[in-house]
Each structure stands twice: as structure tokens, then as C-alpha cells.
């Protein structure tokens, strides 16, 4: 039995615009300079409090970062509604998930820096909740690149890390996979560059979702 663990933001769905607008409003509320879009994209995948600390050049989370995290969470659904934004799937994702979901030798899960509520919303919006049998979020585990998200999904499904593939767009996904002893596939359509993914340990790069299928043969 193999286990495919997908990151969410930047891998399954294009959520950078929504995340950035919520981050922009949060920084404005706390009297901070407006973050650049590139800075927001660079932290997508981390747990939110760590991401906000990193954006302010802090190596550790401080109380202000915790306060900003709480405000961000209170805003997220409001911004999503204001923008009428449904975090669209990247082209080819639905077809790829449909193609692998019926296989008897493969389980599908999610490992994400989103909250459990945020992940559930994406899964329900796109009808993926019936395909994903396991998930770990920022509410459940330490932030990527800590391996806990992967190892806990393996434990829950009875799968070995050596038979697990992590698919993601961030350097944190690649680092997390390698730390857990899993295979890492970087996706070229997300928020990190191909060079960054390779440098952080990617075993392969997928340039289109249909290229992921060959890794489950």
C-alpha cells in the first residue's frame, strides 16, 4: 500500500491571492508596512504564527505574532467572502485526483499549514473530502519542515514512510518529506521555483499534474 500526501496551498489550489489579501489587512490593522506579494508567497506552507514572524524578520514567534495570527484567522472567511474567492484548483488537479482515487493500492492524504477548518473548506468546496482519507494541519502538528505531519499520517494509515510520496510546491514540503524518510515530488506550478525545490531535496519535479501519475505505477 502506498500513501500520497498532498500539500494544499500552491499544490492543489491557487490561494496566494486570498492569503496575501488577508495578510495585507492583518499587517494594516497592526500598523505594519504592507507586505509584498513575493514575501507572502515565500511563507505559504508554514504554520501561520511562524509565517507571520518570518515576514517580520523574527526567528521565533513572539506575542505580537500570536495576536496577528488570531486576527488573520478572524479575517480569513470575511476576505474569502468579500472576494467571492473559492481557492480554485490548478488546471489538471481534479483529473489527477480522480485518476488515482480509485486505486486499491493507494491512499490519499493532505499535509498542510492551513488550519483544519481551512482545509475542510477546500475539501468540501471541490468535493475532495470523499477521496482524502487522512490529513494533518497546523492545528495538529508542528509546522513544516518538521516531519510529524508525514509520520502521523503514516501511523494512522499503517503505511511505511518509504512507501509514501509527499507532493508539494514549497521547500518546506521537500524538507519535511526527506526528514520523514519519504519521497518528495516538487510541483512547478506553485510558489517556489524549480531550482529551490531541487535544492531542498526534491526527488522529482512535476510540470503538470498528470506527470504525478507515473510515480504511483
Task: Please describe what this structure looks like.
This protein has a six-stranded parallel sheet with strand order 3-2-1-4-5-6. Strand 2, helix 6 and strand 3 form a beta-alpha-beta unit. The protein is globular, with a radius of gyration of 16 Å. The chain is built from nine helices and six strands. Helices cover 44% and strands 12% of the residues.
Task: Annotate the secondary structure layout.
Layout: E1 2-6, H1 16-29, H2 37-43, H3 48-55, H4 63-82, H5 93-101, E2 106-111, H6 116-126, E3 134-136, H7 148-157, E4 164-168, H8 171-180, E5 183-187, H9 194-199, E6 204-206
Parallel strand pairs: 1-2, 1-4, 2-3, 4-5, 5-6
Helix pairs in contact: 1-4, 3-4
Summarize the structure.
This protein has nine helices and six strands; from the N terminus they run βαααααβαβαβαβαβ.
Number of DSSP E strands: 6
- The quaternary structure here is single chain
> Which strand order does the major sheet show?
3-2-1-4-5-6
Q: Structural class, judged by helices and strands?
A: alpha/beta
Shape: globular
Strand content: 5-15%
User: How does the major sheet shape up?
Assistant: 6 strands, parallel
Figure out the total of helices.
9
Q: Spans of 5+ residues with little confidence (pLDDT < 50)?
A: none
Radius of gyration: 16 Å
Intertermini distance: 12 Å
Would you list the SSEs in sequence order as H and E?
A: EHHHHHEHEHEHEHE
Average pLDDT taken over every residue = 95
Secondary structure: helix percent? 40-55%
Amino acid at each position: 500500500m502506498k500513501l500520497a500526501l498532498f500539500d494544499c496551498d500552491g499544490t492543489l489550489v491557487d490561494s496566494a491571492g486570498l492569503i496575501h489579501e488577508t495578510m495585507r489587512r492583518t499587517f494594516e490593522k497592526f500598523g505594519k508596512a504592507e507586505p509584498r506579494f513575493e514575501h507572502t508567497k515565500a511563507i505559504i506552507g508554514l504554520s501561520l504564527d511562524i509565517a507571520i514572524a518570518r515576514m517580520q524578520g523574527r526567528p521565533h514567534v513572539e506575542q505580537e505574532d500570536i495576536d496577528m495570527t488570531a486576527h488573520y484567522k478572524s479575517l480569513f472567511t470575511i476576505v474569502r467572502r468579500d472576494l467571492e474567492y473559492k481557492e480554485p484548483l490548478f488546471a489538471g488537479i481534479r483529473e489527477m485526483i480522480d485518476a488515482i482515487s480509485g486505486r486499491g493500492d493507494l491512499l490519499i492524504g493532505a499535509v498542510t499549514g492551513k488550519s483544519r477548518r481551512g482545509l475542510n473548506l477546500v475539501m468540501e468546496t471541490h468535493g475532495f473530502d470523499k477521496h482524502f482519507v487522512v490529513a494533518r494541519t497546523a492545528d495538529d502538528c508542528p509546522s513544516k519542515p518538521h516531519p510529524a505531519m508525514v509520520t502521523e499520517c503514516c501511523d494512522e494509515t499503517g503505511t511505511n514512510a518509504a512507501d509514501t510520496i509527499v507532493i508539494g510546491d514549497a521547500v518546506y514540503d521537500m524538507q519535511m518529506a526527506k526528514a520523514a524518510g519519504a519521497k518528495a515530488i516538487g510541483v512547478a506550478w506553485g510558489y517556489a521555483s524549480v531550482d529551490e525545490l531541487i535544492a531542498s531535496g526534491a526527488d522529482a519535479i512535476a510540470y503538470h499534474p498528470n506527470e504525478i501519475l507515473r510515480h504511483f505505477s
